[in-house]
Design goal:
It contains 10 helices and no strands. The protein folds into 2 domains: 105 residues, RNA polymerase sigma factor, region 2, helix turn helix motif (Rna Polymerase Sigma Factor, Chain: A, Orthogonal Bundle), CATH 1.10.1740; 79 residues, Winged helix-like DNA-binding domain superfamily/Winged helix DNA-binding domain (Arc Repressor Mutant, subunit A). The chain is elongated and about 60 Å long. The protein is an all-alpha fold. About 9% of the residues have low confidence. The longest helix is centred in the C-terminal third of the chain and has 24 residues. InterPro entries: RNA_pol_sigma-70-like, RNA_pol_sigma-70_dom, RNA_pol_sigma70_r2, RNA_pol_sigma70_r4_t2, RNA_pol_sigma_r2, RNA_pol_sigma_r3/r4-like, WH-like_DNA-bd_sf. This is Sigma-70 family RNA polymerase sigma factor. GO terms for molecular function: DNA binding; sigma factor activity.
Length: 202
Amino acid sequence: MKINATKMASSDCFSDDYLFKQIQNGQYEAMELFFKRYYTPLCRFGMSYESNSCLVEEKVADIFIQLWTNRNILDTIKNPKSYIYVIVKNSLKKIRKSEPFHQQIEETKTINSIFSPSREQEIIENEQKEMKTNLIREILDIIPKKSRQAFELSRIDGLKYKEIAEIQNVTPKTVENHIAIALKYISRALESYKKRGLLNSI
């Protein structure tokens, strides 16, 4: 069944397995839907391995290009969602191992930060939103890296524990423990902010 223009409006109509099958058959509309579904979550996920957002966005985009180029092998992929997350993880971890290249990227990022306005600051339109954003960032920053990643994949991206386990290369029970740790940190932080009256001001 070919994806028509009406159904193109919502990527939720199709499963990942179905989209992979259509991509393998050369249907570019399916590729667009898969890109729309996962590009933003993958970029957020990639930031846990690389702090340069421009580099992360570039690498994630490259992976979708590779996916289309190598679409003839997609029938061998059992879990498209886990597969695409693992590919992003491995791609960014390779970059971290390339120190000269990474150092050059960091220097470029520093220069750009001097002459370019922060994207985040452009989004934040008023003082109240900025305060709320800072509080959320503070809470997330205190959560251990693996626990934060598991929490975001579960609560934000909607992945199942088994899928997260495949991405992190751990057991589902470990994922459950990571999320429990994250929730404990969040609960403690919110209680602390509440006592300090910070939550009442936003």
